[in-house]
UniProtKB/TrEMBL annotation, chain A:
Compartments (UniProt record): Cell membrane
Residue ranges annotated for the ABC3 transporter permease C-terminal domain, each copy included: 310-423
Native source species: Rhodanobacter fulvus Jip2
Protein name: ABC transporter permease
InterPro entries recorded: ABC3_permease_C (IPR003838), MacB_PCD (IPR025857), Macrolide_Exporter_MacB (IPR050250)
Automatic annotation (TrEMBL), chain B:
Biological source species: Rhodanobacter fulvus Jip2
Intracellular or extracellular location(s): Cell membrane
Bilayer topology annotation: Multi-pass membrane protein
The keyword Metal-binding appears for this protein: no
Organism domain of life: Bacteria
Protein known as: Uncharacterized protein
Length: 432, 407
């Protein structure tokens, strides 16, 4: 039966090519625009570490003085050196890493490459196992290296390609800011999206080229990039004692019970510090997980949301347009439908026939929409924003494109098909 | 023209007419808001900076290791840069307009205040006002003996209280002391007070991370930067010599310290254009959406009108046979479209207002000014009339003899 309906649908669509083309075009444009913007939204609001993000937490506390205190204030988004180190050494979580961003001059041994600046991450040993960072060669450094401010460095795959032509460079020395660093590891390609662990160096920035122990970087006074929020005496040359928050702390807690225990630990720590007089505000702690932290920071640019709304508005207009055209088309065929009714076709089968026709329009429109979405994403990739390079269609979004097109067109076909089915058989015969 | 027959015809095609009205209303509402958004974005790219943009060049450098004798190095660099033909002024600054790095601090009007009044940005460097070309509207620029060493102040916080003077923007003065002259007033940074000695017309805050409303909350301090504490050299050039200055400046800086990395050398025009590129891209997308919407709506009108014309061929023939002229038939379809468009537009206005309320709540947009409503209305009327013209002409071409034929 379906094959017969399909045949009827194709015949009917072929009979009025211009109109069919119009409907297909409208669906394709609407779906293409919507899927382009939805794909961008999907990529940007994705989970940076699927499977792991639920057990990674970002401890926050409030170490500030009473200047400008408002009880409803959120705690600062980063921690001080003193608190960060205290929590790092407390080892209350399975893994914990303290970090911040920066940039360092690299002086390649190969004189064919001029010295250049490279984005760097200053962090502690647990960074690599906690975020499950893949290694191409070697491994990360250990806690002893952190303690000794060792001159060790881990390179990204890209930087290793640039400096060593992709060969295993572990064990070799690299000059960083006029000092010799031993390369202990080379990462494989790794770009968590969003750049969740440090949103201050760009929410969608690519991975850093070099990773250096935070203790080493701070001792060497490497350039710090990111936000530096100070109070009281504030900024000074010694970042270890400055009353500034400038570090991000991440911990891994595998069960909700562990997370609850850690939150309690943070509260106790804050009360203790208040009793000691270091903290002045009442304890105010937070412990968001990765997705909670990304939500809190509203990482997806508001323009992207706006574009999604815009595309949906456009799709709605395209659908209303299609409903109108389909209605006109179906009603125009009252004669044919009346004859089919008179010959014994039930309303239900007429309805099915008309919806098949709508479905065909949807499928063809969906294919057009897919092409337009690919074109749209290509245009997005040529945009200046830092997330542009990420805008690619994945399989779920590809299937969603077809599903959306067919569902939308079937919905658009419901009203016209229903109206057309109401045609009484006899009347149509008579009028002809 | 009598519009009663049109209404009675439309009443027989209730659903189709309703759909057309709905499509016009939606298009009109979206177009109104999109045009408004475009104007907002374009207006943002026109933001006043208060500096001589067309004459400025920034050279952003980075050091390898800590530069030896950073203070002398900075003075040497600047002396060499000033010697380049075409350079009219040179300065070493902590921050530059339209870049994404800035120093900001909370300020108070009274040292006993619990909360900061607001957060303003701080320009530091010798000759900021002259080099950037900010226009003084009251008071004076800093005297040479007012400048203090930034590095010295950083290693000895007690020196902070010795920085006695500040130059602020007109907008900041107006925000802090509405209706009064800012000259001679005191601002408190923590415990330290500084006196306003000059007011510039405007000087934009580098990264506008606190929103566009505070774009002009700017202070300039008499602090001399060293090659260790600042990395942005700004050159003001004579007209037409920007390109040659840019080429020479990088060379001069590298020669004076071969261990330095030049991160980039750019004109302020380029830096500005880069800063607003997202706004321009968004405006472009919106223009695309408006065009697509109008095209789809126009094609929808063409499609439906063609159907109606085909359906009513017999009626048209009868009317022609009864004496209606071609012009009458043409006007009939044009009026029909005008009526539908008008209903759609009225509905669209209400919808446009609703969408604007939604955007205001979620995207911090201002209220849609009334001038944008006619824009959508005129666009839809014109599109409607253009779209219906083809089918209407075809209708007018139906010969009276059709009336005598059975279908």
């Amino acid at each position: 039966m379906f094959a017969y309906y399909l045949d009827l649908a194709l015949r009917s669509l072929r009979r009025n090519k211009a109109l069919t083309a119009l409907m297909v075009l409208a669906i394709a444009l609407g779906i293409g625009a919507s899927m382009t913007t939805l794909t961008v939204l999907h990529v940007l609001s994705g989970d940076p570490l699927p499977g792991r993000s639920g057990s990674l937490y970002y401890p926050q506390m409030d170490p500030r003085d009473m200047d400008g205190y408002k009880p409803q204030d959120d705690p600062p988004e980063q921690v001080t050196w003193i608190d960060g180190m205290a929590l790092l050494h407390a080892k209350r979580a399975r893994y914990q890493a303290l970090m911040t961003g920066g940039a360092v001059p690299i002086q390649p041994a190969n004189s064919a490459i001029d010295p250049f600046f490279e984005d760097a991450r200053y962090t502690s040993a647990d960074f690599f196992p906690m975020f499950d960072v893949p290694f191409l060669f070697g491994h990360g450094w250990n806690a002893a290296d952190d303690g000794a401010s060792a001159h060790v460095v881990v390179l990204s795959r890209k930087l290793n390609d640039k400096l060593f032509g992709g060969k295993d460079s572990t064990g070799q020395m690299l000059r960083v800011d006029d000092m010799a660093f031993r390369i202990v590891g080379v990462l494989d390609s790794w770009r968590p999206t969003p750049h969740f662990y440090d949103l201050y160096t760009g929410s969608y920035s690519s991975e850093e080229g070099v990773f250096v122990p935070l203790t080493t970087a701070t001792d060497m006074k490497f350039t710090h990039n990111g936000s530096n929020d100070c109070w009281g005496k504030g900024q000074s040359d010694n970042m270890k004692t400055a009353t500034c928050t400038w570090l991000q702390l991440w911990v891994q807690l595998d069960t909700p019970a562990e997370a609850a225990a850690y939150r309690k630990f943070l509260l106790n720590y804050s009360s203790e510090q208040k009793a000691l007089g270091r903290f002045q505000r009442p304890p105010n702690v937070r412990l968001p997980d990765v997705m909670g932290w990304l939500d809190y920071n509203k990482v997806v640019p508001s323009d992207v949301h706006l574009q999604v709304w815009l595309a949906f508005g456009f799709l709605l207009v395209c659908l209303v347009n299609t409903v109108g055209l389909m209605l006109a088309k179906f009603l125009r065929r009252s004669g044919e439908l009346g004859i089919r009714r008179a010959l014994g076709a039930s309303r239900r089968s007429l309805f099915a026939q008309l919806l098949t026709e709508a479905g065909v329009v949807g499928l063809v429109g969906g294919s057009g929409g897919l092409l337009l979405a690919l074109l749209g994403l290509w245009l997005v990739r040529r945009q200046p924003s830092d997330y542009a390079a990420l805008a690619y269609l994945d399989l779920p979004m590809l299937l969603a494109t077809f599903a959306a097109a067919v569902v939308a067109t079937l919905l658009a076909g419901l009203l016209p098909a229903w109206r057309a089915c109401l045609i009484p058989p006899a009347l149509q015969l008579k009028s002809n | 023209m009598d519009i009663r027959p049109i209404f009675s015809t439309l009443r027989r095609h209730k659903i189709t007419s309703l759909l057309l009205v709905l499509e016009i209303a939606l298009t009109c509402a979206i177009v109104c808001n999109a045009v408004f958004l475009i104007s907002q974005r374009l207006q943002r790219t026109e933001m006043v900076s208060g500096v001589a943009e067309h004459e400025l060049v920034q050279i952003h450098v980075a050091n390898i290791g800590k530069p030896a004798d950073a203070r002398a190095r900075a003075q040497e660099d600047l002396a060499l840069l000033r010697r380049i033909p075409g350079v009219t002024a040179a300065a070493l600054l902590n921050q530059v307009p339209f870049t994404n790095s800035s120093s900001n601090t909370g300020i108070k009007l009274d040292p006993t205040q619990k909360l900061h009044t607001l957060s303003a940005t701080m320009y530091m460097g010798e000759g900021v006002i002259d080099t950037l070309g900010a226009r003084l509207v009251a008071g004076r620029d800093f005297n040479a003996d007012e400048y203090m060493d930034f590095d010295a102040m950083r290693s000895d916080p007690d020196l902070q209280s010795k920085v006695g003077s500040v130059v602020i923007t007109q907008a900041l003065g107006e925000r802090l002391w509405p209706g009064e002259s800012a000259l001679g007033k005191n601002i408190y940074l923590g415990e330290t007070s500084v006196r306003v000695i000059g007011v510039v017309q405007s000087l934009i805050r580098p990264s506008l991370f606190r929103g566009d409303d505070s774009a002009q909350w700017t202070m300039v301090f008499p602090l001399r930067m060293s090659a260790a504490s600042a990395t942005r050299y700004v050159l003001r050039t004579a007209p037409g010599q920007r390109e040659s200055v840019m080429a020479a400046a990088g060379k001069v800086l590298r020669e004076n310290d071969p261990r330095r990395i030049i991160l980039d050398t750019k004109t302020l025009d380029d830096i500005r254009s880069h800063f607003f590129q997202n706004d321009r891209a968004m405006a472009g997308i919106l223009v695309g959406v408006i065009i697509a919407l109008l095209v789809v709506t126009a094609l929808g009108i063409v499609g439906l009108a063609s159907f109606w014309v085909a359906q009513r061929r017999r009626t048209i023939g009868v009317r022609r046979a009864l004496g209606a002229t071609r012009r009458n038939i043409l006007h009939y379809f044009q009026t029909e479209n005008f009526l539908l468009a008008t209903i759609g537009i009225v509905l669209g206005m209400v919808l446009a207002y609703g969408i604007n309320l939604f955007l205001m709540a979620h995207y911090e947009l201002p209220r849609l000014p009334a001038v944008y409503f006619p824009v959508g209305a005129v666009a839809l009327w014109v599109i409607g009339q253009l779209a219906v013209l083809g089918p209407a002409l075809r209708a007018a071409a139906v010969p009276p003899v059709v009336a005598t034929r059975s279908v």
